[in-house]
Amino acid sequence: MNLPNKISIARICLIPIFMVFLLVPLPLGTWDIYGEVLPISHVLGCLLFVIAAATDWLDGYLARKYNLISNFGKFLDPLADKLLVTAALLSLIELQMLPAWMAIIILSREFAVTGMRLVAAADGHVIAASPLGKWKTLFQMAALAVLLLHNFPFSIWNIPVGMLLMWIAVLLTIISGIDYFLKNRHVFKHSM
């Protein structure tokens, strides 16, 4: 197994640990920073989330730089990304820090695009990530990280940056999903 695939597997292994820090009431205490009280377990969970999200860039970079692209990696990398985002979204819903409808839009788009990619792959076509899809991912990860930190440090000034980023991520999710389907509608015409 090559290094990028090992990194993707490590990312998947971080997910349950990240969720334990967020969802299990661990007796780690809190940090009081400028009057904002943050559970230390949530800070650690956010740190694991950021590390896992950053490894997505790292494994892709290494795979391209050292020509270590494999079919297993093409399957594993997006799976790891979707599992990480799903875990973060569901955790935030459980913590009542994110409305479920936002998560449903994001997850529906992810399943739909993944399904389209599977249909295309069965016909020998590869659907690459679009620039809009990359922007969607960037805003999703940024929004999730800020929300996992209870909107800190922006909560000091009462600016809902986490939710503003999430609104942008949801809009980009919708727009990029429509863009994927319009640009790749031939995939369905050929498979019917």
TrEMBL record:
Keyword set includes Transmembrane: yes
Coiled-coil residue windows: none
Family: Belongs to the CDP-alcohol phosphatidyltransferase class-I family.
Broad class of enzyme this protein falls into: transferase
Catalytic activity of the protein: a CDP-1,2-diacyl-sn-glycerol + sn-glycerol 3-phosphate = a 1,2-diacyl-sn-glycero-3-phospho-(1'-sn-glycero-3'-phosphate) + CMP + H(+)
Subcellular location(s) of the protein: Cell membrane
Gene3D superfamilies registered for this protein in UniProt: 1.20.120.1760
Transmembrane segments: 12-34, 40-62, 83-105, 163-182
Function: This protein catalyzes the committed step to the synthesis of the acidic phospholipids.
EC number: 2.7.8.5
Organism of origin: Alteribacillus iranensis
Keywords: Cell membrane, Lipid biosynthesis, Lipid metabolism, Membrane, Phospholipid biosynthesis, Phospholipid metabolism, Transferase, Transmembrane, Transmembrane helix
Molecular function as annotated in GO: CDP-diacylglycerol-glycerol-3-phosphate 3-phosphatidyltransferase activity
InterPro entries: CDP-alcohol_PTase-I, CDP-OH_P_trans, CDP-OH_PTrfase_TM_dom, CDP_ALCOHOL_P_TRANSF_CS, Phosphatidylglycerol_P_synth
GO process terms (BP): phosphatidylglycerol biosynthetic process
Membrane association type: Multi-pass membrane protein
Source organism superkingdom: Bacteria
Protein name: CDP-diacylglycerol--glycerol-3-phosphate 3-phosphatidyltransferase
One Pfam family hit: CDP-OH_P_transf
Gene Ontology cellular component list: plasma membrane
Main location: membrane
Pathway(s) annotated for this protein in UniProt: Lipid metabolism; Phospholipid metabolism; phosphatidylglycerol biosynthesis; phosphatidylglycerol from CDP-diacylglycerol: step 1/2
Record's keyword annotation contains Cell inner membrane: no
